[in-house]
Write a structure and sequence with these properties.
Helices cover 53% and strands 13% of the residues. It contains 11 helices and 10 strands. It is elongated, with a radius of gyration of 38 Å. The relative contact order is 0.10.
Amino acid sequence: MKSDAQRRVWPRRPAYLLLLLCLLSTTACERFAPTHSVHFLTGEWQYRNGFDPSFLLSAYDSPEWKTTRYPIPFHDAEAMPAYANYRGHVTVRYRIPAHIVAELSELNAAAFYSSWISDVATVYLNDVPFASVGSEQPYVSGYNRFILSGVPLRALRSDADNYLSIHFYAGGTFPLLFLYEDIQLGDADAIYTNFFIYEIVAMCLLCAYFITGQYHFVLYIRRRQEVYNLYFALFSLLLCVYWFFRTNMRDFAFGDLVLLRVRIEYIALYFLAPPLMFFISQLFYKSNSRFGYFALAISLLATVFTAFGSFDVMRFTLFAYDLWMLFAIIVLIGYVAYGAYHRIMDALPLFIGIIILMSAATHDVLAHLGAFENTHIARYFFLGFVGAIALILANRWVRTQEKVEELNVTLEKKVSDRTGDLRNTLHEIQALKEQQDGDYFLTSLLIRPLTGDYTHNNALPKEY
């Protein structure tokens, strides 16, 4: 049976305001549009095993080179089985079109942005190296790190083809990766500005989510009976930690501690689902759901494998967890949809927010599983979910204020009525006391002759 509070109708506040907030938040997920002098190096790339400086300027139609299109799925055992567990050197290169070369020649400064690549990598413009990540001797991994560097324009050639080449080396436990987002080459001011604006926006969003978590944690401290605030605070803070590892700032924080960085990132990811499930169950039903405990057990198991396993074990655990999350997302949406269908208070705005966040999370999970290549976007759509929670809290606050106003309006009348009742009661008590006093006086007069002693009356004669 549902309580009266649970069976209240949905809030009357217009849901389209939340949808507008969500639409505004999605605009942040797009990369800031670069200027015309920034080019994405998509299209045909060439690759070959090994590395030698002579490879860099060899003929484009040389039979040793194999042609493919970016992104190059070195990690995909089905698409490129020879590179799934490859250890050694690989060289990839891109022939820069003539119109891009002409634009670069007119620039005062040019820059190159690689997005995230792996493992050890050195970038060349023709045969001139200008940037690298990681180290072959001594081996220092560059797993999932980015290259942002100026380009030596003096290396451009006017009488022959120009190539941008990357020499990869996979010598440890980390795989070759060359697939994230788009490689950029062009005007230095535009690329650096684009990069730092993107990072600033990402960090501002993370700060907003961190403040949201702290706010709900303070609410829990002040009102311990509202346990859902604690779970939402934990979810927000863990989400903030995880998405920090999806920004380029994490490389400045961890440097060459690649394995430690990856372990913390994965563990933060594994513990996102349980507090979210507990938050929803506490918000609707004032109890922790069994499915939330099941998700917590899976998170603990994945954490053990991640904390103590090898990198291959960590990758397999992450893959299995991604499959589990697809199922968990469906259950979570169904759980909230059930509450919305039965008109549980505040379920509808939360359902809208969950749909937005879970859609973005599903996109990220499928992108990580290799269903398609795209940047992760859930960090931006989380703003819509926070908006849904804010709408719920605002509705609860408005309902509380309405009750307080109603109480203030009727309080004086209630006090006056209560005072009148007490005055009438006092009058009745006083009348009853007077009646009791009169009855006592009359009773004493009636029983006095019966209680007198007349054996020694002097009015009677005495005879002896």
